[in-house]
Amino acid sequence: MIIKERKFDMELSYLLQLSIRAQLSYEDNEEIDTRIKGINGERSFDAIVKQNLKYGLVLNNLRFLVNKQYFQIDALIIMNGQIFIFEIKNMYCDVCYKDNLFYFLNGTPIDKLNEQRIRTPKLFKILLTQNHIDLPFNYYTTFVNPDYKVYG
């Protein structure tokens, strides 16, 4: 059962409206493109979850503040006494997973993704502890684009 549906990103909506009225920079257009790809990936994930999840609670697009630091969770599923956190990626390139890190195929680390894989579970654990919640959780980076591969 989906408890919290995914909502359209208001900042993206603002950028799209602005792009109709003004000439945006290359960086702004890249930001719009990246966010649209992200939303499409999240919708693909949502369709899979709706089709396959029989029992459990689903919460999408969560944003938390812990120790003066914000962090975001794309999808959180609670079932069987556990919490499953999904960071959804709709990458348009092949990537490599080695030594618990993601890399582009040319060997360059995907820094933002690797940092997020450490930061989010750490802050989520603090959030659970602060709220006296003693449930195990698992964190998954989920690649949804079927046209690209993760090697490892």
UniProtKB/TrEMBL annotation:
Domain NERD: from-to ranges: 37-152
Highest lineage ranks of the organism?
Answer: Bacteria, Bacillati, Bacillota, Bacilli, Bacillales
Tell me what this protein is called: NERD domain-containing protein
Q: Which PROSITE patterns match?
A: NERD
